[in-house]
Amino acid sequence: MKSNLGIKIDYDSHSVYIDGISIDLTPKEFELLYYFVENEGKILSREQILNRVWGYEYLGSPRTVDTHIYRLRIKLGNKADYINAVWGLGYKFEIKK
């Protein structure tokens, strides 16, 4: 189980808790959040995210990443600002203390 200031992720059960409250994520949203938490503080390009979360065979639009991040931020509530766009580069997950 990974835990970062109010976000707890249990990979085995695909469970996520925000401030102790369970939230429902789609499988892709879960993988996306897990990947961000694994790489906290690092800028991840859309291509890196697509390769890791969707796999190399994904042939759709790279903007699907933006859509999933938008939905994930809504579900994260007051923790949404942990995911930041880095103009021209991608996204970064950073805990605000």
Task: Explain what this protein looks like in three dimensions.
The protein has 97 residues and is an alpha+beta fold. The chain has a single domain (25-93), classed as Winged helix-like DNA-binding domain superfamily/Winged helix DNA-binding domain (Arc Repressor Mutant, subunit A, Orthogonal Bundle), CATH 1.10.10.10. 35% of the residues lie in helices and 25% in strands. The strands form two sheets. Strands 1-2-3-4 form a four-stranded antiparallel β-sheet, covered by helices on one side. It has a three-stranded antiparallel β-sheet with strand order 5-7-6. A hairpin with a 2-residue loop joins strand 3 (15-18) and strand 4 (21-23). The longest helix is centred in the last third of the chain and has 13 residues, at 64-76. The chain is globular and about 35 Å long. This is Transcriptional regulatory protein, C terminal. Keywords: DNA-binding, Phosphoprotein, Transcription, Transcription regulation, Two-component regulatory system. Residues 1-95 bind DNA. InterPro entries: OmpR/PhoB-type_DNA-bd (IPR001867), Sig_transdc_resp-reg_C-effctor (IPR016032), WalR-like (IPR039420), WH-like_DNA-bd_sf (IPR036388).
Name the overall outline.
Answer: globular
In angstroms, what is the radius of gyration? 13 Å
Using the 3D structure, state the CATH architecture. Orthogonal Bundle
Structural category:
alpha+beta
Largest sheet: 4 strands, antiparallel
Task: Tell me the number of strands.
Answer: 7
CATH homologous superfamily grouping: Winged helix-like DNA-binding domain superfamily/Winged helix DNA-binding domain
Pattern of helices and strands: EEEEHEHHEE
